Amino acid sequence: MKIAKYIVISLIVFVIIRILFITNFWYNLEHKGNDVLFMIRGEQEISDDIVIVEIGDDTFNTLNERWPFPREYHAKLIENLEMAGASQIIFDIEFTERTNIDADSKLAATIAKYDNIILSGKLIRTEYNNSVREQLLSPIPLLTQTGTKWGTVNISVDPDGFVRRYELFQKRSKEEIKLSIGTIALAHQYKLDLLSEDIQNYPKFFKIGSNYIPKVNAKSALINFYGPAGTFKTYDFADVIDDSTFTTSFEKELETDLDQYYQLAENFKDKIVLIGLTSVEFHDTHHTPFFSEDNQLMPGVEIHANFIETVLRNDFLKEYPILPYLLFFFIITLLLFIFNSLIRPSISVFINIALIIFYIWLSYFLFSTKLVSIPILEIPVLIIIVYIIGLVLHYIQTVKERKFIKHAFGQYIAPELVDELIKDPKKLEYGGIQKELTMLYSDIVSFTPYAESHTPKETVDILREYLTEMVNIITENKGTLDKFVGDEIVAIFGAPVDLDDHAFYACKAAMEMRKRLNELHEKWKAERRDPFETGIGINTGVVTVGNLGSEQIFDYTAIGDNMNAGARIQSLTRDYETKNNIIISDSTYEQVKDKVEARYIDDATVKGKKIIIKIHELISIK
């Protein structure tokens, strides 16, 4: 039944936490955690296969031109890169509108001369009257009519505005997919026909030749960013087009030709060259996992470069399989719940902290060495939540135990002993232990004749007053009321809470009981009620003490030969004339002889014991 309870509660916790983890708030928080892994791993070494030609602020200052640049500039760029031996020329710039017919024609003629140029377009989605309209913007027909390839440059962002995924293709309703420029660039690199079976879209993978790119949704793959903005080698657009046939505004001012191209041409041989806008004003710069490290936005063209580098190096980031992870998550929830329910919070807190540290290290290890991306925060949050639940359950259990102990023992032992039991309830677990205690037996002399000569009400009233006073004295002296046997009081000293001087406290309680009984005698005489006498016997020895009885009903008590001896010593008070009617055994006397006044009485044979024991009269406390 206990296991069933653990499973049910763990299942409830599992469902509630999983609901929390599918909210946008948590989705963004988990992404931030994974971003930290990129920053801890730091900038990675990249190949020399990809370079970027940027159109940035320096470009505009050098050329002194407004955007868009004359298309002759792009034609010049192509010619110079081809002369330098570029492997591919990929434009992250959209030529989707006509300009000057001569300029467009010149760019088209230049593009038509080469088969390693990739142009770009975009799928635009707009919401209108609760519906989504899609428009595919493609390069002007003049540029593509000779068969020049073009791909999409859509960049998807997560709900927090960061880019972590790369869209491999776009697809409009009931139309064939349109590959992205990065996907086309890879197909060209592997010399694949775009319509061949070597390029396939599967539910969990996108195949390009022998590469199976793991997808995180229908059309996207994770980007394994190699560093912050500026990780890839970058050259200025103006420097690349500046050859002996081109004079920039800057050179006109200096009245000289710096001829930058010939200084840079060797840097493009056999390289994949991406051309894109990097100025923030053009709104093609994005937050990436490294943003928090340097506060630099990454241009869209460099995001394409990171994706292409990821595939060329086969550095795919892989997400965890969801079903095995959910099973693992539930098992961890169950084990954590059982662990935190059984172990004290003061101990489990350190183990839980160690588990959190280990899991975070494991997340980083899998990310940095195996390229496996697992949720970095879910398990730590689970550990914290289950620990808090365990803390609450322990608190509830402690409150119940305290109420039980106070209810069960508050009437029988001293308040400070009740507090000791509350601190360590294990002392009340079912079962007994061997322990040395001191037993006190107090019995009314000739109580049967007394009861017969008085009405039941008179007997009950005087007995209640007498027993109340005696029990108060016992508890004040750290004793435990074991039981009432008719008019007899049975008390033990030294259990359930350890008591060093249990023999002394028993003797002290006996003397105070005698004194209080004398006071009651005076009171009862004044009230014209008949008093009675008592006899007290005390014995010290090893007994079995604990929660004893049946599994259904048990009580905290003590049993054993020494308990019986205590009762027999009490009965000897009727046979010997003593000052206070208190007799203690020799085992008790040996422990208190320095603290009490006592007188040896006799070597007595106690009923039930074969040996003779010495008995002493307790006279006073020193």
Question: What's the gist of this structure?
Answer:
The chain has 622 residues and is of the alpha/beta class.
Beta strands, count: 26
Q: Which geometry do the CA atoms define?
A: rod-shaped
- Our measurement of the CA-to-CA distance between the termini, rounded to an integer number of angstroms, reads 58 Å
**Beta-strand residue percentage:** 15-25%
| Main sheet properties | 8 strands, mixed
Helical region count? Answer: 21
Tell me the radius of gyration: 46 Å
Mean pLDDT: 87
Which runs of at least 5 residues are low in confidence (pLDDT < 50)?
254-258
List keywords for this structure.
alpha/beta, Alpha-Beta Plaits, seven-stranded mixed β-sheet, eight-stranded mixed β-sheet, 21 helices, 622 residues, rod-shaped, 26 strands, 3 domains
Topology record:
Elements: H1 2-21, H2 24-41, E1 50-55, H3 57-63, H4 71-84, E2 88-94, H5 101-112, E3 117-128, E4 131-137, H6 141-144, E5 149-152, E6 165-167, E7 169-170, E8 178-179, H7 181-189, E9 199-201, E10 205-208, E11 211-214, E12 220-222, E13 234-236, H8 237-241, H9 249-254, H10 261-264, E14 272-277, E15 285-286, H11 291-294, E16 298-299, H12 300-312, E17 318-319, H13 322-342, H14 345-370, E18 372-373, H15 378-409, H16 415-423, E19 431-444, H17 447-452, H18 456-476, E20 479-485, E21 488-493, H19 502-526, E22 534-549, E23 554-559, H20 561-571, E24 582-585, H21 586-592, E25 596-605, E26 612-621
Parallel strand pairs: 1-13, 1-14, 2-3, 2-14, 3-5, 17-18, 22-24
Antiparallel strand pairs: 3-4, 6-12, 7-8, 9-10, 10-11, 15-16, 19-21, 19-22, 20-21, 22-23, 24-26, 25-26
Helix pairs in contact: 1-13, 4-5, 7-12, 13-15, 14-15, 18-19
